[in-house]
Design goal:
CATH superfamily of chain A: Response regulator
Radius of gyration of chain A: 13 Å
CATH topology of chain A: Rossmann fold
CATH architecture of chain A: 3-Layer(aba) Sandwich
Number of helices of chain B: 17
Helix content of chain B: 40-55%
Radius of gyration of chain B: 69 Å
Strand order of the largest sheet of chain A: 2-1-3-4-5
Strand order of the largest sheet of chain B: 6-5-9-8-7
Number of helices of chain A: 6
Largest sheet of chain A: 5 strands, parallel
Number of domains of chain A: 1
Order of helices and strands of chain A: EHEHEHHEHEH
Distance between the termini of chain B: 223 Å
Number of strands of chain A: 5
Structural class of chain B: alpha+beta
CATH architecture of the largest domain in chain B: 2-Layer Sandwich
Number of strands of chain B: 21
Oligomer: heterodimer
Number of domains of chain B: 4
Largest sheet of chain B: 5 strands, antiparallel
Distance between the termini of chain A: 16 Å
Shape of chain B: rod-shaped
Structural class of chain A: alpha/beta
CATH superfamily of the largest domain in chain B: GAF domain
Shape of chain A: globular
CATH class of chain A: Alpha Beta
Strand content of chain A: 15-25%
Largest interface: A-B, 28 and 31 residues
Chain lengths: ~130, ~700
């Protein structure tokens, strides 16, 4: 069974790139183009991993991350989160860790880097479940 | 027969008795002679005590029965006086010489022959008494001599004092008022000799008018007054008058009551006193002048102190955080001022660079009518100062001022002053108001001006400071945003290029799709770089605007044509509405073209397929207004104020603007403003948007333009 990955990304080109890359790597990709939609799908569709941009229309990536981690213990609160963002300052990375992101990748990132990061997070998750 | 014998015996006895008595009598006569001589001796004038004592011992032996066998000695006061034949023997009689109750010496009489065996007392009692009497007499003599000597010394001393005293001393008989003595100083003082003085009396040395006073003094002395002193006018021998301080005491002289007067000539002192008095009067005058000057200086100093205290308040207010801004500072300064100047209310009018008029006033408890009046007066003054009408007023209340007025009904006087240099962009005026007519003096205005100028400077400094801070904040934010904005297309570009390079894309259609994305991202990146460049030029004030006569209808037509292809793709029509006689504007054709292109491309982006866009130009007063109207999705009211901010995204639910940099409208507005114009938007959600800008119409005439275009 394919792992389901939710990509929240408002830039159409970037979304296309990540979707294509992860689909090529054998994942099922679902997408959201703004913060509200992203949060809703993360909570309702039980993805195995979240690829999250920080700058989003509506609510931003930090807020999504924070809200997911504030859920009662369950799949949504434990959802692995990969931050993929053009925000590249050290403060941005620290803030992402603060709200509970599992991994931080700053743009530009190559398809290989994205795939590697996602693979790693997925296998870690499976180890925990095992 | 015994009777005759008895008679004879008795007769013999009597004869013997008579002989004895005669002998005794002779002895007594000798003793009396001795005493008499001694008595004479001690009363002899002009002989010394030593001569007296020596004489006394010499007179003693002749008074004795056998003078040759008798010697005498006096030991007194460490001295010894003796007869030539004196020799100490055991047969002797000694008597003490007592002077003033003390044993001071001794008188000794010795017999030079052998002591008789019979008789206890070696000397007859009469003899011993004689010696005692002589010793006693000597004691008295010595006492008297000493007393006389002391008196002589004392007299000499007093005489020396009297003669040598620097003060004049005059002795007058209390009863006769005639003089009895005058010392040399007295003689010098009055010009009389002592002999002349002795012929004069009190009435001769004092002027008539003060004589009664002097005589009253004499009377007081007679009544027992011990000491008197007075300053009295005196007349010299030559008739001239002078003043003397006279101290007088009573003495008894030869049994008569006398007054001793001590005279000191105080003419010089009087003269000095007079001079001092005149000098004192002068000083008094001078002092009055100085006091006046001092009062003036104090007043000036007080004003200065108040000024500096005000400036101090302003300086203290400087440390108030920037956020508390003008209100807090003004409250502090006006609070201080309120206790110094008779103002019931204060106000500040600030005309900022964007022509907004900000009026602050204190205290806030003023009635609405009064507050309105203050605003009105401040506005009037500001408009007069600036020479033009001002559009808007934003009232700003101030913190309450301590000691502020309770019930001010009317304003009867005011002082409104410019507090900033007229060449500054921001102008500040200060006003103070009073319920009293003519309440403000020059000093008050000066104080208010000093405080107000400081306050205004502070305010301007804060504006500059805030602007600088804002600029810095925006610059660093801008850099961060630029980095973010560039990374986004770069990320996609790099990713797709990698995918293509690594031949991860198998089907041709996807490959073409990715190349299309790469193409668009490159264009986006190029647009971004271009816009960033514009923004940084604007930020640095280096955006160059040419100023050339320009006809906007040509520009509009050109832009519409340029976007025809892009509009056609969405089946959108672009119409233009241009009057025939559109006047020229002065400006940069390329930059204004950029503005038009930005507005038209936005209109296309936010229009539904099949929509219509109208670009209009029309003359409105002194301006030429250009508008771009679409029938698109419209903009929410709350988003309108932010629309011209950088990277502002109106639509929060959708994706990012297609190909938009988020800078276009901001740059456009800045270009329009650089032309002295303005830009705005009217929009309702679902009803489309109209973006407009107005540019002042050029002063130059139309002919030039046509010539240009013809050429």
């Amino acid at each position: 069974m394919k792992e389901k990955i939710l990509v929240v990304e408002d830039d159409p080109a970037a979304l296309r790139l990540v979707s294509f890359t992860l689909e090529s790597a054998g994942y099922e990709v679902i997408a959201a183009v703004n913060g509200f939609e992203g949060l809703r799908r993360a909570q309702e569709e039980q993805p195995d991993l979240l690829v999250l941009d920080l700058m989003l229309p509506g609510i931003d990536g930090y807020e999504i991350c924070h809200r997911l981690r504030s859920n009662p213990p369950g799949p949504a609160s434990r959802l692995p989160i990969l931050m993929l963002t053009a925000k590249s300052r050290e403060a941005d990375r620290a803030a992402a860790e603060q709200v509970g992101a599992d991994f931080y990748l700053s743009k530009p990132a190559t398809p290989e880097e994205i795939t590697t990061a996602v693979d790693t997070l997925i296998s870690q998750r499976q180890e925990k479940h095992a | 027969m015994t009777e005759p014998r008895d008679k004879t015996a008795k007769r013999n006895q009597s004869k013997e008795l008579i002989r004895d008595r005669t002998h005794d009598l002779g002895e007594r006569v000798k003793e009396l002679n001795c005493l008499y001589r001694i008595s004479n001796l001690v009363h002899t004038p002009d002989i010394s005590l030593e001569e007296t004592l020596q004489g006394t011992v010499d007179l003693i032996p002749p008074g004795w029965q056998c003078p040759e066998m008798t010697c005498a000695r006096i030991v007194f006061d460490g001295q010894e006086f003796r007869t030539e034949n004196f020799r100490e023997t055991v047969w002797r009689q000694t008597s003490d010489i007592i002077v003033n109750g003390e044993r001071s010496g001794a008188l000794e009489v010795c017999h030079l022959d052998e002591r008789r065996e019979n008789g206890e007392g070696a000397f007859l009692p009469e003899k011993a008494e004689l010696i005692n009497a002589i010793a006693e007499r000597l004691g008295r003599v010595i006492e008297r001599r000493r007393a006389e000597e002391a008196l002589r010394e004392s007299e000499a001393r007093y005489r020396a004092l009297f003669a040598g005293a620097p003060e004049g001393m005059l002795v007058a008989d209390l009863e006769t008022k005639l003089f009895r003595h005058a010392n040399p100083a007295m003689c010098r003082m009055f010009g009389y000799t002592e002999e002349e003085f002795l012929r004069l009396g009190v009435a001769d040395i004092h002027p008539k008018e003060s004589l009664s006073y002097v005589l009253a003094e004499f009377e007081a002395m007679a009544q027992g007054e011990k000491l008197l002193s007075a300053n009295l006018p005196c007349r010299r021998k030559d008739g001239s008058l002078f003043y003397a301080d006279v101290n007088a005491i009573m003495v008894a002289l030869d049994g008569r009551k006398c007054i001793v007067g001590f005279f000191t000539d105080v003419t010089e002192r009087k003269r000095a006193e007079e001079a001092l008095r005149r000098r004192a009067a002068e000083l008094e005058d001078l002092n009055k002048q100085l006091t006046h000057a001092h009062d003036e200086a104090s007043k000036a100093r007080r004003i200065l102190a108040e000024k500096s205290s005000l400036l101090q308040s302003v300086a203290e207010a400087l440390v108030v955080p920037l956020s508390e801004q003008l209100q807090g500072t003004a409250s502090i300064v006006f609070g201080r001022l309120a206790s110094i100047v008779p103002a019931d209310a204060f106000a500040l009018a600030i005309v900022s660079g964007d022509q907004r008029l900000l009026i602050a006033f204190a205290p806030p408890g003023l009635s609405r009518r009064l507050a309105d009046e203050i605003r009105h007066r401040m506005r009037e003054a500001a408009e007069i100062a600036l020479g033009r009408k001002l559009p808007r007023t934003i009232p700003l209340g101030l913190e309450p001022i301590t000691g502020g007025p309770a019930n001010v009904e009317t304003i009867r006087s005011h002082a409104i002053l410019p507090l900033t240099s007229p060449d500054l962009e921001t102008q500040v005026l200060g006003g103070m108001f009073s319920a009293k007519a003519d309440a403000f003096e020059d000093d008050h205005v000066a104080l208010f001006s000093a405080a107000g100028v400081s306050l205004a400077s502070l305010y301007l400094a804060r504006i500059v400071h805030a602007k600088e801070e804002e600029l810095q904040r925006r610059q660093s934010e801008f850099v961060a945003t630029v980095s973010h904005e560039l990374r986004t297309p770069l990320h996609s570009l790099w990713g797709f290029v990698k995918l293509l390079l690594e031949e991860k894309v198998e089907d041709e259609e996807t490959r073409r799709e990715f190349l299309g994305i790469i193409d668009r991202e490159c264009a986006h990146l190029a647009a971004l770089v271009s816009d960033f460049l514009d923004v940084s030029k604007i930020e640095a004030g280096r955006m160059e605007m040419r100023k050339e006569p320009l006809s906007l209808d040509g520009l509009v037509t050109k832009t519409a044509a340029a976007f025809k292809t892009m509009a056609d793709e969405k089946a959108i029509t672009i119409d233009t509405d241009l009057p025939a006689d559109l006047p020229p504007v002065e400006g940069d054709g390329e930059r204004l073209g950029q503005v038009l292109a930005n507005l038209v491309s936005n209109a296309i982006k936010f229009s539904e397929a099949g929509g219509r866009i109208v670009v209009r130009a029309r003359v409105e007063g002194p301006e030429l207004v250009v508008s771009v109207q679409d029938q698109g999705i419209g903009i929410a009211t709350e988003a309108l104020p932010h629309l011209f901010e950088r990277f502002y995204q109106a639509d929060e639910s959708g994706t990012r603007w297609q190909g938009g940099t988020g800078l276009g409208l901001n740059i456009s507005r800045q270009i329009v403003e650089a032309h002295g114009g303005r830009m705005w938007v009217d929009s309702n959600v679902g009803e489309g948007s109209t973006f407009s800008f107005a540019i002042p119409i050029a002063a130059s005439n139309n002919e030039d333009i046509r010539t240009d275009e013809a050429a």
